[in-house]
Write a structure and sequence with these properties.
The chain has 270 residues and is mainly alpha-helical. The protein is built from eleven helices and seven strands.
């Protein structure tokens, strides 16, 4: 699979970059449209998305580099070559969330309301961004047969893309992409249900993505490790636990999500 989409002289644009950027743009549009329903200024949202993306990408790269430190200490110039892959989503989520919290506090916007607005677009961006791994021939699972992939009724270009170094591999990028897109539909619909409380959608995102990543990580062969443990699985368990506790607490203490649509910030109680 050729990772380069466009090449003009010394200028090259990779599919990885295109996939990540496409996910960011679509997520940004979705978040902005939903924020308008809550009387949140467009300038606030666009600035928030911008800084979350910047610090999220930085966090994703730092996280990846830290868990591959031996390699990057011998090849430090490779650290800046993010177009070759090497972004850890959990690092991006942590940095992006910290950015969102600080930014919302600065402008006195309810944090849970903003995360509920953001997570459907976020998980869709994650699903679209996973295709960058496909073009980079990375983030795949263990060896399988061509017959196995054909039984999944996959398009031939995906089957051929999973033929790397003489072997066929689990298209774990595809598994995660599909379940992230399903997650987008679930979160988007769940948020509109009458009894949904403020913070419930964020909690459901943590639970859904935690389960997805935990099981998909069991198939992957390039996991970031902490000793003998897969770091992504450890973080996924943490996400599930926090999400479950958050769901229970917000069900008890928070207002209905649909009651705060269009509400002013001083009218919202956590």
């Amino acid at each position: 699979m050729n990772p380069i989409a466009i090449s003009i002289g010394s200028l090259t644009i990779t599919w990885y970059s295109i996939c990540i950027l496409t996910g960011i743009i679509i997520a940004g549009i979705i978040i902005c449209k939903e924020a308008k329903k809550h009387n949140i200024k467009v300038d606030f949202v666009t600035n928030l998305v911008f800084w979350c993306v910047i610090y999220g990408l930085l966090g994703a790269r730092i996280y990846y580099v830290v868990f591959n430190l031996d390699y990057y200490l011998t090849s430090p110039l490779e650290i800046i070559k993010v177009w070759n892959g090497g972004l850890a989503i959990h690092g991006g989520l942590i940095a992006g969330f910290i950015t969102l919290v600080l930014y919302c506090r600065k402008y006195k916007v309810n944090i849970l309301k903003m995360t509920d607005i953001a997570v459907p677009g976020l998980i869709l961006a994650q699903g679209l961004g996973r295709w960058g791994n496909f073009f980079n021939s990375e983030a795949h699972g263990g060896i399988v047969t061509r017959a196995f992939l054909e039984k999944l009724h996959l398009p031939n270009f995906i089957i051929e893309g999973m033929h790397i170094g003489g072997h066929y591999y689990h298209p774990t990028f595809l598994y995660e992409s599909v379940f992230c897109i399903i997650g987008f539909l679930i979160l988007f619909g769940f948020r509109k249900l009458k009894g949904t409380k403020l913070g419930n959608t964020t909690a459901l995102y943590l639970i859904w993505y935690g389960f997805i990543r935990y099981f998909i990580e069991s198939l992957r062969t390039d996991s970031l490790m902490l000793g003998s443990l897969k770091m992504a699985q450890m973080v996924s368990i943490f996400m599930i636990v926090i999400g479950a506790l958050m769901f229970i607490v917000t069900r008890i203490k928070c207002k209905n999500y649909n009651e705060i649509v269009g509400a002013k910030e001083n009218e919202i109680k956590r």
